[in-house]
């Protein structure tokens, strides 16, 4: 099962998000009406521009949703699959449970976060995060604070050290 870092299926939407959705839908309706008028008047350029707008603007909210769903961890029997942006590249990596050295519980913010947001926004919206590092104190992944994930990690690798804050880590 995938555990998303910055996405929740039935997450409470704010009024601004509802207004933005209505704005996108009303723009798409306006573009559709303009396309029909362009077809009736047989103008080629407005038809092409309107169709391009219809393809682009409704696709933006879908792309933002899929962008936030790209950050996840998946706990499998033998390994952990992580997906997210590290050093400005999206990567999907596999690692063994034995690679985990440290689990940091004192820091609330995730080490990685989507563009256009801040760490504080993610904590406010989704709660506390737990960061995981290898034995050399190199960042591996983050996950939302869930006891079930922590139990699986400790069961698979009992040698994990749980620390409050890890100051000398690197990404």
Description:
The chain crosses the membrane at residues 21-40, 46-64. Keywords: Membrane, Transmembrane, Transmembrane helix. The chain is an alpha+beta fold and 171 residues long. The chain folds into 2 domains: 15-67; 77-163, no CATH class. It has helices at residues 15-41, 44-56, 59-69, 119-126, 147-156; strands at 2-4, 72-75, 79-86, 89-96, 100-104, 129-134, 139-144, 161-163. The strands form 2 sheets. The protein has a 4-stranded antiparallel β-sheet with strand order 1-2-3-4, with no helix packed on it. The longest helix has 27 residues, at 15-41. The protein is elongated and about 75 Å long. The model has no long low-confidence stretch (mean pLDDT 78).
Could you tell me the number of beta strands? Answer: 8
- Please state the average pLDDT score: 78
In DSSP terms, counting alpha (H) and pi (I) runs of 4 or more, how many helices? Answer: 5
Approximate shape: elongated
Low-confidence stretches: none
Percentage of residues assigned to helices: 40-55%
Distance N to C terminus = 26 Å
Strand content: 25-35%
């Amino acid at each position: 099962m995938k555990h998303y870092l910055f996405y929740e299926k039935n997450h409470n939407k704010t009024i601004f998000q509802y207004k933005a959705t209505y704005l996108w839908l009303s723009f798409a309706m306006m573009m559709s009406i303009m396309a029909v008028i362009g077809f009736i008047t047989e103008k080629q350029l407005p038809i092409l521009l309107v169709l391009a707008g219809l393809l682009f603007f409704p696709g933006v909210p879908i792309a933002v949703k899929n962008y936030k769903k790209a950050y996840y961890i998946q706990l499998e029997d033998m390994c952990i699959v992580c997906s997210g942006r590290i050093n400005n590249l999206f990567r999907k990596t596999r690692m063994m449970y034995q690679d985990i050295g440290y689990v940091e519980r004192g820091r609330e913010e995730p080490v990685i976060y989507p563009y256009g947001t801040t760490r504080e926004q993610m904590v406010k919206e989704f709660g506390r995060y737990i960061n995981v590092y290898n034995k050399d104190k190199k960042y591996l992944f983050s996950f939302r604070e869930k006891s079930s994930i922590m139990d699986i990690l400790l069961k698979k690798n009992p040698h994990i050290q749980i620390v409050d804050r890890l100051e000398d880590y690197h990404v």
